[in-house]
Design goal:
Order of helices and strands: EHHEHE
Structural class: alpha+beta
Number of strands: 3
Bound molecules: L-tyrosinamide
Largest sheet: 3 strands, antiparallel
Low-confidence stretches: none
Strand order of the largest sheet: 2-1-3
Oligomer: single chain
Mean pLDDT: 93
Strand content: 15-25%
CATH superfamily of the domain at 32-99: Ribosomal protein L7/L12, C-terminal domain/Adaptor protein ClpS
CATH class of the domain at 32-99: Alpha Beta
């Protein structure tokens, strides 16, 4: 066999890795009004007023709160849009993403 020959894989892969989901995380700050955070959560993440309030107040008290999980590109798009909504209104509101374990 010439040494450039690559032996084809004969055994099927045992595991098909599912793409990881990514968390969207809301980060607290001292400047963005609570009502504004709630409004962005409702608009961008389709939350009820009740759900949005609970996420906002958790981030306010603990520093961060997981908002939702999505496929990577969707998580990043939503985090960017939500962060941009804050910036457009002059607030330092921040949403980040990170892969789930
Ligand atoms: N801490 C802000 C305030 O007291 C409210 C707030 C909550 C801001 C959560 C950001 O992610 C946040 N006005």
């Amino acid at each position: 066999m010439p040494d450039t020959f690559v032996k084809p894989r004969t055994r099927p892969r045992l595991k098909t890795e599912r793409p990881k989901l990514h968390k969207v995380i809301l980060v607290n700050d001292d400047f963005t009004p609570r009502e504004f955070v709630v409004r962005v959560l409702k608009a961008e993440f389709r939350m009820t007023a009740d759900q949005a309030y609970k996420v906002m107040i958790t981030a306010h008290r603990r520093g961060v709160c997981v908002v939702a999980v999505y496929a990577k590109d969707i998580a990043e798009t939503k985090a960017t849009r939500a962060t941009d909504a804050g910036r457009a209104a002059g607030f330092p509101l921040l949403f980040t993403t990170e892969p789930e374990e």
